[in-house]
Amino acid sequence: MTIDSREVLLDELATVLQNDPGALDATDPRYVPGLHGTGAEDVVLTLARSIRRTTGSQLYYFSGQRGTGKSTELRRLAVELNGLSRTKAFIVDVLEYIGESHPIRTIDLLLVTALAFADRLSAGDAFGADFRRESVASRFGQWLQSDVQITSLTLGGAKMEFKRQQQSILQHIRDFDLAREERTLAQCREYIREMAVAVRQRFQVDKVVLLVDSLERLRGVGDSAAADMFNRVVKLFDADREHLRLPELQVVYAVPPYLPYLTNVGQYVSLSMLASVRVCEPPAKARRQPREQGLQVMRRVLDRRFPRWAELVSPEALDLLALRSGGDLRQLLRRFLLDAMDQGYYALDRLPLQADDPIITTVIDRHRVEFESMVTRDEYALLHAIAAVSALDLPRRSDWPTVARFFDIRAVLNYRNGVEWLDLNPLLWPLIERFAPVSDDTGSVSAPSGSAVA
């Protein structure tokens, strides 16, 4: 059987799309600079300048929704910082040690941060095997076994062992009385401080920066667990923020994207927020109208990954999919485009797919129906209110966990075109636009009685 050359091309593109490379280094040929803006809108360079200008113990929060390239930009931040004189930066991922649905507390985070930092310093581009001979490493390892009671653990390879014992270890800590918990917190902070001092001495630097990735992925499964996780995250990063300010370090924590919108933590901690790719004009200019510069950026992303994409899907069709993605690269590449290419196998004569091709329409409709099922009827009024003002104006504090979930599932997206603004995921536009809220005497809004919103 002869294989059509277009089928081979489809296979090649589908392979690229299906094998997500994950976080990219800024030197990777697939990396697209200026994805989130340039100049004053480049939050990575702004944060790097802030770290460069400050001394002593400093705390920073860095956030961005899934699909915005946050981990990639954190890597770029590390490169920028390590390019500064007398500065050493390291990235650690704490969710390599605990699950993203773990009901985290401050003591849990500091323990895994200390462990992840020690593992990172054991890597070849840091101390390597020499780290085990450092005094702090020896004492930290002994403390983990005697006080925290982690057995069979070797610094430099602790991830799998800690995750395997996660439940018993963290339950053991949860059983501490208040005095012992406070002592353990202080000991964690002290070991991290000593590690930072060891880095300064080893590399002859004045400033050590620790970038703690992936905490924006913390989430509860189910309504009650999600509400509990929201309250834990707010306590962790807002109420307990001074515990997270680590001695001898400038530390950057990746935090959930709802945090700056639902708390006033930005008044106390320097907070940098990645926005979705700006595929639409801002509301004040032309609400929900295409923004050519943003669409060009999305095309450039695909150019870097598969230069021959226009032989399979027209630029106009790609622009339409980019608009419906709301600027979410993962939604565009791994959902819309991959789905369209799978359908393209059965319509080779219609390649490249045009914007009005039924395949493009079907793909968008299929994902729209799936996305609409992620929100419930009693949430429509809240979504409608957010869409109406392009911001949060919540009538009740009890709505906060629900809005946090909207950010988590990307029902609500954040943008920056000179100013910050919000909008619904475009897949929700038709559903919520059909919804007509009814105001009661208190000013609250609810679904109209007997309304049939499909």
UniProtKB/TrEMBL annotation:
It comes from the Bacteria. SUPFAM superfamilies: P-loop containing nucleoside triphosphate hydrolases. This is ATP-binding protein. It comes from Sphaerotilus uruguayifluvii.
